[in-house]
Amino acid sequence: MMRLMSMIISASDPGYQPPTSLFVFLALLGVGALVYGGRWAFDVRGAVASTLARRRAVLELKAQQSGNLGLVGADGVGPWFFRLFGGVIAAGGLLLLLVSVVSLTG
């Protein structure tokens, strides 16, 4: 997509070079997403269990504040959701990293 945008812009200005800082920023964003998503996807140091425990505590607190104790039992999100979501985030980060590296070297 960045190459397409670069081609559109360069069609109007033959001497245009996309800024390197943009691709470095995208690469760093991709690395961050890869690490954060991989943490959930591969359950590094119990990331999924701690997220589920934090989610359960928030639901219990919300149920106590609202007086509706049925909120706690209605939580249908399991560890598979966070692993899947982490996999999607990690894949997006890897794609962003690859696009920025290819754009920088190409």
Label the overall shape.
elongated
Radius of gyration: 21 Å
* Count of DSSP strands: 0
C-alpha termini separation = 14 Å
Mean pLDDT, rounded to whole units? 84
Individual helix count: 5
Report the structural category: mainly alpha
What can you tell me about this protein's structure?
The protein has 106 residues and is mostly helical. Helices cover 79% and strands 0% of the residues. The chain is built from 5 helices and no strands. It has helices at residues 2-12, 20-41, 47-66, 70-73, 79-105. α2 packs antiparallel against α5. The longest helix has 27 residues, at 79-105. It is elongated. The protein starts with a helix and ends with a helix. The model has no long low-confidence stretch (mean pLDDT 84).
Q: How do the helices and strands line up, and which of them pair or pack?
A:
Blueprint: H1 2-12, H2 20-41, H3 47-66, H4 70-73, H5 79-105
Short recap of the structure:
The protein is mainly alpha-helical and 106 residues long. It contains five helices and no strands. The chain is elongated and about 65 Å long.
Which features characterize this protein?
106 residues; mainly alpha; 5 helices; 0% strand
